């Protein structure tokens, strides 16, 4: 008798007319399933060559792709940093202010904005020198707000012996003050020395690696400055 599960034209015709039952689907064994999974895994592994089997040209191509990815990440990071810096770089010069402008320009300067305020007198040569240096530093550090004001216009009866005076603020709070010529090393101060002073106060991030002021001179004027401040404490100003 012919096997009803065989694939023959006769059996196909009998199944079509319902004379014999439809052919049963062959059952897939557990071993067959395992073999199918192994074959799929092997095919996937072969699609991704082992790095140890790559030739020099293939390694160079892989390295170039990795370098390109790293460079792209670095480029995007630098672009974000530059955009953030440009957003903060909104100053770049020294602005003259009067007493009524003080609160708005200093106390309301903005969050995390460093403010350098120079109180000066036209008749004091050192003040002119410092204003000249501040003009250069304002261009170099446009994220810091540089201001200047005639001392007696900003603070009535401000003693001339206390100029030049530099006040440094951040978030509306005074962080450092330099009062009188001795604080600046006498009647001569370089732009680098002034930059270093502002950097130590936190107002700018200098590229200078060390204090440009000679140590002997710095120690001498430091003592004089403390002596003068002590004498000044006994006066109204």
Helix content: 40-55%
Are there runs of 5+ residues with pLDDT below 50, and where? none
* Largest beta-sheet details: 5 strands, mixed
Cα gyration radius (Å): 40 Å
Features:
elongated; 237 residues; 8 helices; single chain; alpha/beta; 5-stranded mixed sheet; 48% helix
Explain what this protein looks like in three dimensions.
The protein has helices at residues 9-16, 30-47, 56-88, 102-107, 125-140, 151-154, 191-201, 215-232, and strands at residues 94-96, 114-120, 145-150, 165-170, 173-179. The protein has 237 residues and is of the alpha/beta class.
Provide a brief overview of the structure.
This protein is α/β, with parallel strands linked by helices and 237 residues long. The protein has eight helices and five strands. Helix 5 links the parallel strand 2 (114-120) and strand 3 (145-150).
Helix/strand layout:
Layout: H1 9-16, H2 30-47, H3 56-88, E1 94-96, H4 102-107, E2 114-120, H5 125-140, E3 145-150, H6 151-154, E4 165-170, E5 173-179, H7 191-201, H8 215-232
Parallel strand pairs: 1-3, 2-3
Antiparallel strand pairs: 2-4, 4-5
